[in-house]
Specification:
Elements lengths: L3 H65 L1
């Protein structure tokens, strides 16, 4: 049979474990949010470069057509 002191120690240990789990969850959520933000920024940069490349290809095609005349 557990003594009141044993129960108090057990409850304190459970509380510390719960607090560690909550801190870990918060850290992971924060890390995931930063990763999502970084992915969105990378995708936006990729899309901008893609648009530039398409514009450059169109301009090159126009210049080739002009030079062929």
């Amino acid at each position: 049979m557990a003594t009141p002191r044993d129960l108090k120690v057990q409850m304190a240990g459970e509380t510390r474990a719960r607090e560690r789990a909550q801190a870990l969850a918060a850290t992971q959520a924060s890390r995931a949010k930063r990763a999502e933000t970084a992915v969105q920024a990378a995708e936006a940069e990729r899309d901008a470069w893609k648009a530039r490349a398409l514009d450059a290809e169109a301009e090159l095609a126009r210049l080739r057509t002009d030079m062929a005349r």
